[in-house]
Structure formats: C-alpha cells, structure tokens
C-alpha cells in the first residue's frame, strides 16, 4: 500500500537542509593542516584505528561466521536473485543523485532500466534490461553530487559498521539514506522488507568476496592502512579522479567495483 503523507515528503527536505548545515560545519571546523602530496588526509588516525579494530572484531566474531553459514545454506541462484533485487531497489537513489548534478542522460538511462526490470524483471529479481542491451546502472550516490558541486573530500574517517569513508562521503551517505523515493512512498512494512533484502545481500557479498577480504583484514601487516589506501583509490576512480584501474573496497558498496 502506497502512503504519501506530508510528513513523508519532509523526509526529503530535512536531510538536504541538514546537509547544508553539515557542509558549512565541515568547511569551517574541519582540520586544515597541510598534507604531503600522495599522502592520505587522516588527522583522526588514532580514533580511526580504534574504530577499524572494532569493525575488524565485528567481522571476525559476527559477520564472517554468518556469511560462511549463509554460503552453506543459500543456493547460488537464490543468492543471485537477492543481490540483484537489492541493487535494483537502490537505483532510484542513483536517479535522484544524477538529477541533482545535472546528469540527465544517466538519470534517464537508470529510469529506463529500473522500469524494465521492475515490470518485465518481476520487481528486479531478473534482469531483462541487460538482455536488451540497455546501459548498466550508473550506481551514482550523493557523495558524487557533492563532489560535482565542489565540496572537498575532507578528512578520512572510518565509520562503525560501514567502514572507510571521508567527511564528504559520510554526508553523502546520510542524504542517500533519505533519497530513495521508495522510502517515502512505501509503507513501513515494505520498507522493512527492502532493508532486510539489502542486509542479506551484504552478507552474501561478504561470503562471495570472502577470500579477498580475509587476506586484506587478517593477512596484511597493517590492515588499517591497506583498507584506507584501497578505499581512497577506489573512491577516486569512481569520482573520475583516479587512473584506469578499479580497486576493491570490501567495506563499500559491492557494486562500486
């Protein structure tokens, strides 16, 4: 059942207004010390390393065992359907983000793909859009929009549960949380279903990338520095500031790769 009360529309306005305030705060209060060329801007390294240790412990004790059990129980075909659906329902956020930065071509292509897979693909569980040779989804996020608007990346931060980020990307994630049109059009029960599908998809991605993530987290001499380096390179590539090679970021959206 679709619900569109006035207070739901306010869910879109509030994060945008809050984002403006946070942008001003980051610009005026963030660390400003000079950084050597090629070095990460990481003035909160001590706090970040403590958070990295927490995330690593959480992965070791909870996420990794759950992912291993998930692999043993869920058939590959079912896991593919869940992952495909979880990505499909994230496309409206990409559409809105592309519109905000004036990339109407990508927004239109994403809308066409979303429409085809929502209908012919039975709600996104199947992908006829690819079979029809439609362009791949752009996977845009609001952090890219802030980048296009000229906001600096700010300091590197490691977030609880979410992993590596920057101040700009953190603000973008906060706005993305509210940007999906389905978030204020669908009932609470439907939103819970979408959230559950996304969570299950992340567990599946942890299982699918298990060997790579295990090597990064548990076999690196300094897993914090390694994760930071890979994240910043991968993010620069996604923003168009990097080279020709993509980099694996096990904490970020798996479709960033």
Note down, in words, how this protein is organized:
- There is one protein chain.
- With 257 residues, the chain is mainly α.
- It has one domain.
- 65% of the residues lie in helices and 3% in strands.
- The protein has helices spanning 6-29, 45-73, 76-88, 91-100, 104-119, 128-131, 142-148, 167-179, 181-185, 188-208, 210-218, 223-238; strands spanning 156-159, 163-166.
- The protein has a two-stranded antiparallel sheet with strand order 1-2.
- The protein is globular.
Give me a quick take on this structure.
65% of the residues lie in helices and 3% in strands. The chain is mostly helical and 257 residues long.
Which properties best describe this structure?
mainly alpha, two-stranded antiparallel sheet, 2 strands, 12 helices, disordered N terminus, 257 residues
């Amino acid at each position: 059942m679709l619900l569109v009360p006035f207070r739901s529309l306010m869910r879109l306005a509030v994060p945008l207004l809050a984002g403006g305030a946070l942008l001003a705060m980051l610009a005026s209060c963030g660390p400003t010390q000079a950084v050597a060329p090629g070095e990460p801007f990481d003035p909160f390294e001590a706090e970040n390393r403590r958070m990295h240790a927490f995330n690593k412990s959480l992965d070791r004790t909870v996420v990794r065992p759950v992912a291993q059990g998930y692999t043993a129980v869920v058939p590959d075909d079912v896991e593919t359907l869940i992952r495909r659906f979880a990505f499909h329902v994230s496309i409206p956020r990409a559409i809105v983000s592309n519109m905000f930065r004036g990339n109407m071509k990508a927004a239109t292509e994403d809308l066409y793909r979303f429409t085809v897979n929502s209908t012919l693909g039975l709600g996104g569980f199947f992908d006829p859009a690819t079979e029809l040779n439609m362009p791949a989804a752009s996977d845009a996020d609001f952090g890219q929009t802030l980048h296009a608007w000229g906001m600096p990346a700010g300091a590197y931060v490691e977030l609880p549960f979410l992993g590596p980020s920057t101040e700009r990307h953190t603000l973008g994630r906060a706005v993305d949380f509210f940007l999906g049109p389905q978030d204020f059009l669908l009932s609470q029960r439907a939103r819970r279903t979408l959230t559950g599908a996304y969570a299950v998809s992340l567990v599946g991605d942890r299982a699918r990338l298990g060997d790579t993530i295990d090597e990064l987290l548990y076999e690196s001499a300094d897993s914090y520095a390694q994760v930071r380096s890979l994240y910043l390179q991968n993010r620069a590539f996604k923003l168009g500031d990097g080279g020709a090679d993509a980099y694996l970021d096990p904490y970020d959206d798996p479709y960033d790769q």
